Amino acid sequence: MREPDVSVVVAVYNTMPYLTKCLNSLVRQSIGRDRIEVVAVDDGSTDGSGRELDRFARLYPETVKVIHQANSGGPAAPSNRALDVATGRYVFFIGADDYLGPEALERLVHAADEYDSDVVLGKAIGVNSRNIHQAVFARNEVEIDLFDSALPWSLANTKLFRRELVERHHLRYPEDMPVGSDQPFTLEACFRAKRISVLADYDFYHAVRRLNAHNITYRSRHVERLGCVKSIMDFVAGLIEPGERRDAILVRHFAWEVARLVEDDFLQLDRAVQEQVLAGVRDLADRYLTDRIRASLEIEPRLRIGTAQRGTVDDLLAVIRQDAEEGVPPTVVDGDRWYAGYPGFRDPRLELPDSWFDVSDNAADWLARLEAVAVTWETCDDGERALAVTARTPRRDLASLTSGPIGLTAGDVTGTTLETSRDGAGSTVRAQFRVGLLLAGSGTGGSLLSVRSQLTAFGGVGTAAVRAPTRPTVSRLMFRRGMRFFVITPTTSHRGQLVIAIAPVTPRRVLARLRRRLPQGGK
């Protein structure tokens, strides 16, 4: 039997009905079923996923291999089991609720063979407003460097790996990590690869956000995530010597995983959990947070992590409440320096360095910090619906410090500024986003648009995410674009920032919605 070009690994646990689309996208790949093998491991599913795998194995016995096992609590064990039996020249990992573009594997294998690459990244996009970091997919690259690119921000395992590399270094997933176990695997593969390539001219991977959010990553808790980020950072430290290269990797983990532990939802945790999380963040900061990493962090995670490192739970709560409940902090001007007036600034008890609060080098970005105070649906003069966002800052001098218009954007969509005014308590900016423009800027799988402010000041352009201390109460609405329907939902991210979620609606949901609106009997 001919050696397959690529083994596709699918770790499966209760992913119906998404699993069917995932498997169909694999057996219908343009590369041909004779050049791939699908190794699917059912990790004790109880929703019929195991039966669906068996059905595909009966339909495509030469292509689909199925292994059933008791539930292991995470994707690591089933992924390792699949690697043990994979026979392809390359191996590719796919989430059981995701799917591939029709030409994905053919393009990836061709690139790996042509460039002699050990790892190839194909552009990934989000579905159902799932957010996927896009910086690494800016352009096609024959070769990128792990330490001098955006690759550390894209360490998911959804890549093509040369199996000889995997087996030579016996790369496997740490099975004691219920969340994030793909990151050590991917990091070491990229660290040891002789060449890493990027393909950005095709939508290879469609990452689906489950509408029921049952994915373990979505529902993992703070203590679990703390344990996983500790494992990841310890792994990085064991793989890479201290210095710029290690910092280039760890900055992502402080800016993302560690920062997520002290987001606004930290306020709702039990006191004992807060204490445990703070102790864990302090330990990680003491061991791995260098001045180089700290200086590269944005002001919010820099101060929250720093306060956890030096202060008490109450000190950290005060800093988080400033953003989550009280609004944009005051600006302290001292000579030619600007400082963010968060709790703890020049508190002799904490002895936090002024440099942690210094925003002088990013004064335009600091000036652009606004807080959403109202989000409403409106009807434009021509009858088109629009989403209006009203945002404020305590700075009364906002207009006088800027040179040019002050506006709001949602993703790549620029809102129409309707008002820029000031009163005794600060300044207000009000902008309107037409539905047609929002939908035009969204792909068929939907999108998650971050609302940001933008202005020109101090010789540069400043921008900042618009925070929303409370989730907007405005309702979600359904709109049509061509033959497709989408639901637009103004909401907040885990960071307390205003976002506009645009998600496609299936025909079944559209019909169900229409039936609910009809009188009884459909008349």
Automatic annotation (TrEMBL):
Coiled coil location: none
Domain TarS/TarP linker: 229-319
Organism domain of life: Bacteria
InterPro entries: Glyco_trans_2-like, Nucleotide-diphossugar_trans, TarS/TarP_linker
Organism: Plantactinospora mayteni
Signal peptide: none
Keywords: Glycosyltransferase, Transferase
Chain ranges of the Glycosyltransferase 2-like domain: 7-130
Presence of the UniProt keyword Plastid in the record: no
Taxon lineage: Bacteria, Bacillati, Actinomycetota, Actinomycetes, Micromonosporales
Name of this protein: Glycosyl transferase
